[in-house]
């Protein structure tokens, strides 16, 4: 006789690990933005090193899997859908 796995029973009593991970990542990303002095989620004016000016809401463009000093320069942000890396940013001012 073959037994059955009851996935529903286990899922009811187990915490949602993925949701917990996402919440922790969001807190980590907000902390990173605070340390960088970036007004994440706010209206900003960003000047890129190439001379382009962007105005709009500043958000993370991609989710970083690991946040470390080596990935910081490549961290991607966006202002109203236009993506750029942290290393391309010359200045960022909250409006």
Walk me through what this model shows.
- The protein has 95 residues and is of the alpha+beta class.
- The chain has one domain (7-94): SH3 type barrels (Roll).
- Helix content is 33%, strand content 29%.
- A five-stranded antiparallel β-sheet has the order 4-3-2-1-5, with no helix packed on it.
- The radius of gyration is 19 Å and the shape is elongated.
Quick recap:
The chain is an alpha+beta fold and 95 residues long. Helices cover 33% and strands 29% of the residues.
At the first level of CATH, the class is Mainly Beta
Separation, N- and C-terminal Cα atoms: 68 Å
Global shape: elongated
Radius of gyration: 19 Å
Annotated CATH topology: SH3 type barrels
Tally of alpha and pi helices: 3
Give the number of DSSP strands.
Answer: 5
Side-by-side strand order of the widest sheet: 4-3-2-1-5
CATH architecture: Roll
What percentage of the residues does DSSP assign to strands (E)? 25-35%
Low-confidence runs of at least 5 consecutive residues: none
Number of domains: 1
Summed over residues and divided by their number, the pLDDT gives a mean of 79
Please give the share of residues in helix. 25-40%
Instruction: Report the structural category.
Output: alpha+beta
Biggest sheet, open or closed, and with what strands and sense? 5 strands, antiparallel
- What sequence of helices (H) and strands (E) makes up the elements? HHEEHEEE
């Amino acid at each position: 006789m073959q037994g059955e796995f009851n996935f529903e029973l286990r899922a009811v009593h187990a915490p949602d690990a993925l949701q917990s991970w996402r919440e922790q990542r969001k807190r980590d990303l907000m902390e990173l933005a605070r340390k960088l002095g970036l007004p994440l989620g706010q209206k900003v004016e960003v000047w890129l090193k190439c001379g382009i000016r962007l105005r709009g809401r500043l958000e993370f463009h991609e989710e970083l899997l690991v946040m470390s000093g080596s990935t910081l320069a490549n961290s991607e942000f966006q202002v109203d859908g236009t993506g750029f890396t942290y290393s391309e940013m010359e200045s960022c001012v909250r409006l």
